TrEMBL record:
PANTHER family listed in its UniProt record: FI19380P1 (PTHR10900:SF77), PERIOSTIN-RELATED (PTHR10900)
Gene3D superfamilies registered for this protein in UniProt: FAS1 domain
Cellular component, GO annotation: extracellular space
Lineage: superkingdom: Bacteria
Keywords: Signal
Protein name in UniProt: Putative surface protein with fasciclin (FAS1) repeats
Lineage of the species this protein comes from: Bacteria, Pseudomonadati, Bacteroidota, Flavobacteriia, Flavobacteriales
Signal peptide residues on this chain, from the entry's feature table: 1-24
Domain FAS1: 38-182
Keyword Signal: yes
Gene source species: Leeuwenhoekiella marinoflava
Length: 186
């Protein structure tokens, strides 16, 4: 009986250790906060110190409920510094209630339906001969390419963002952190 209990205890310990390792591999740090794959996009994003502007914009655009829904979504999430690079007054203007449709257009330009991991994105780029094209939730196009060992995303205005943190898994999709705000045609 002792041998069976020892084996059961060993099995349970190994299972807990394996589960802990798997969870640790899936949880990434973004903006000083752990991004848990069991939480949705909004639940994680609100904890990132690097995404306070994005979170404020999502709230002002009335997109919180959408980004908490089942999805799945792939979100290209610009950091605060990316918003700071926009012309002075742009963010403040977009956050005004009367500009909600324009803000929604900008934010949904950063979302692709479905869950597209970094491996999926790289595969799309390679299969397309070096430049992949995706249609965003707002209906406009983005293009992805590889530059050295970095994935770059180009918008319709010619701005190019670099993916700085890939595969931040969420319960309803995935976030890829980017360093530039992508701009749709207005």
């Amino acid at each position: 009986m002792k041998k069976r209990n020892s084996l059961s205890t060993l099995f349970i310990a190994l299972f807990i250790a394996a589960t802990t390792v798997a969870t640790a591999q899936e949880t990434k740090m973004v903006g000083g906060a752990a991004m848990y794959p069991t939480k949705n996009i909004v639940e994680n994003a609100v904890n990132s110190k690097d995404h306070t502007t994005l979170v404020a914009a999502v709230k002002a655009a009335d997109l919180v409920e959408t980004l908490q829904s089942e999805g799945p979504f792939t979100v290209l999430a610009p950091v605060n510094a990316a918003f700071d690079e926009l012309p002075e007054g742009t963010v403040a203007t977009l956050l005004k209630p009367e500009n909600r449709p324009a803000l929604q257009g900008v934010l949904t330009y950063h979302v692709i339906a479905g869950k597209h991991s970094a491996a999926d994105i790289m595969k799309d780029i390679k299969e397309a001969g070096g430049t992949a094209e995706w249609t965003t939730v707002n209906g406009q196009k983005l293009w992805g390419m590889i530059d050295g060992n970095m994935v770059k995303i180009k918008d319709q205005a010619g701005n190019v963002a670099t993916v700085t943190i890939a595969d931040v898994n969420q319960s309803n999709g995935v976030i890829h952190v980017i360093d530039t705000v992508l701009l749709p045609e207005m």
